[in-house]
Amino acid sequence: MEVLREKVEEEEEAEREEAAERAEWARMEKMMRPVEVRKEETTLKQETLRDLEKKLSEIQITVSAELPAFTKDTIDISKLPVSYKTNTPKEEHLLQVADNFSRQYSHLCPDRVPLFLHPLNECEVPKFVSTTLRPTLMPYPELYNWDSCAQFVSDFLTMVPLPDPLKPTIKKEEKVLPKKYTIKPPRDLCSRFEQEQEVKKQQEIRAQEKKRLREEEERLMEAEKAKPDALHGLRVHSWVLVLSGKREVPENFFIDPFTGHSYSTQDEHFLGIESLWNHKNYWINMQDCWNCCKDLIFDLGDPVRWEYMLLGTDKSQLSLTEEDDSGINDEDDVENLGKEDEDKSFDMPHSWVEQIEISPEAFETRCPNGKKVIQYKRAKLEKWAPYLNSNGLVSRLTTYEDLQCTNILEIKEWYQNREDMLELKHINKTTDLKTDYFKPGHPQALRVHSYKSMQPEMDRVIEFYEMARVDGLMKREETPRTMTEYYQGRPDFLSYRHASFGPRVKKLTLSSAESNPRPIVKITERFFRNPAKPAEEDVAERVFLVAEERIQLRYHCREDHITASKREFLRRTEVDSKGNKIIMTPDMCISFEVEPMEHTKKLLYQYEAMMHLKREEKLSRHQVWESELEVLEILKLREEEEAAHTLTISIYDTKRNEKSKEYREAMERMMHEEHLRQVETQLDYLAPFLAQLPPGEKLTRWQAVRLKDECLSDFKQRLINKANLIQARFEKETQELQKKQQWYQENQVTLTPEDEDLYLSYCSQAMFRIRILEQRLNRHKELAPLKYLALEEKLYKDPRLGELQKIFA
């Protein structure tokens, strides 16, 4: 094996030497070729390049002649910066590079659509698309995530459908205005009977026409489903591509700018990609999109799949191979040596647009003017900014029955910042059913309220947040004759209560609804299983037949039984018509027991049970009456809330919170006044001396001179005291440092390393303090005379010491 390995190594070494000799002979032969032959090859290359340049110059790039959506009337271009109206030399160079790049692209790919490189801006100046992007960091945390940022941008965009290219535009005929002077028409001599018959005939015709239109609409709907799209794959759209890698993005995905929704790159709605660009470069897709965007590889550093326009890109590009590099003429290398030393990369110019600035008001307003309307098929979505509507309405979705959007099916309205916690209102126009949805925090703990009318004792369903109520009420259903309540988490294990009402003797009015309650006919209550009681003693359902004076009980069924025990009591009055007490008899209690027990057969037990049920019946009737009152209170409260529709304002919203704004302005005014008083007190250098004189008295010449001398002498003394204080501190620090140094000289031999470190640290700090005090003292000596002269000049110009000016005049 070792011999075989040595033979293989020798053969490989021989092959390498032979390849090196062939490469050397080829190089020598190239160098020994005549100069004329090399010049002829150079001439051929130059002619080829000139022919290619001539072909590229003859290529005409078709540019859309459509005017931009904005005009000079909508945008005041006089207020725009110079960068919007002109191009810098670097931008002109970039446009030339883009034109050359576009010609090469059209020459190599004549079947593809022209590139979108340099459209016209607001001032009708061509600008490269990459320079229209300017990355900006905004002070709003909501814009740091792609979903909230995309939704914010989509609210500002409004999609305007383009005209159908398959249908030519038809000009509307102008209406001819009627002339002022015309001949009066002749008198109408038609019969009324004939007119009525004609009206009936027209109504029948309209009914038939409506039927025909309905059938036609149904036929059109069926045809729309199967109708092929003639422009499928021919439309061009722009969207956002987010590449994976940075900011923990796991995979590539698309963002539709008009809706703000994200889509996978495997989505079938995206048929292909022509080009990509960002604020640094521009790339052309060279991959086949036969399978939409599913097989595309988004590696922008691969020039085979993505052809870039500028060399100055972030990702590294593929380098030339050694064989391609060896074929370059050595003489050309010498001639182009200076050219290769130059940097061929061209960096993208700075963006010509202004830095985007979004004020808090504009960020909250979102849509232009705070409102946006989006029309869908059989639906319309309206959006408003918060606090724009007085009732807190921020969004409304209207669904229609027909394509013309005339017959409304349902309306959904979303609210924000409502004091009554109303979040959503759903109105069904077909059934006239209204449903209100509330957030937690309503005074009555409302969750959902479904109704057709706000009048009491009508069909309605009210759901509550049971955790916010003491009685654990979850839901209440009401009709003109019944009321049903559902409970959860009660200590008495009540889960259901159903009350049936009889007809009223008097008519119902809003004022008499409380004083004239509906007569109760029947109350049915159901209970959850109480594990603390045996099943045969735990009541599952009890029915109070108020009109029939009967009480029915049904107990829970044991797990090993197939039926449950039942008991019925005949509720009679305690005394008869003559005033005699009624004695409990066996016929007043009818029972069915699965396992009869002795104590349940006794009349005392039955009597006590019936008395307890009478008290429970009275309590249940009272609770039903309270439920009716609560419904009336809820309806009254909801009417007041809908009429007031008060909005909540945060204490941090100083713009809308009037109380907070007034308090803040008052505090700022008080602080400003206090600051002015302090400033006046600090600057009034004559105040201590003027206080010695009678108020309001005019100063004499002698008093003015005396005040000036006292003020100057006092200021001079304060300057001297300050210098003495600094000098005293300086001497004190110097003496303490000398004492410390003397102590160190005496105990230097016995000191530990820790003590020496402490001594050096103290000396360093002491020298720092001494140096600072020395600088302060020198500075004070320099500024003291200047301060004295400045004060003397102020005193001379002070209007209160006007007599001094007369002395020196």
TrEMBL record:
It is found in: Cytoplasm, Cytoskeleton. Residues 321-335 have a biased composition (Acidic residues). It holds the Pfam family CEPT76_peptidase. Residues 198-227 form a coiled coil. Residues 697-804 form the Dynein regulatory complex subunit 7 C-terminal domain. Residues 368-650 form the Dynein regulatory complex subunit 7 MORN domain. Residues 236-309 form the CEP76/DRC7 peptidase-like domain. Residues 336-345 have a biased composition (Basic and acidic residues). It comes from the Eukaryota. Transmembrane segments: none annotated. Keywords: Coiled coil, Cytoplasm, Cytoskeleton. GO terms for cellular component: cytoskeleton; motile cilium. Residues 1-21, 321-345 are annotated as: Disordered. The keyword Zinc-finger does not apply. The keyword DNA-binding does not apply. This is Dynein regulatory complex subunit 7.
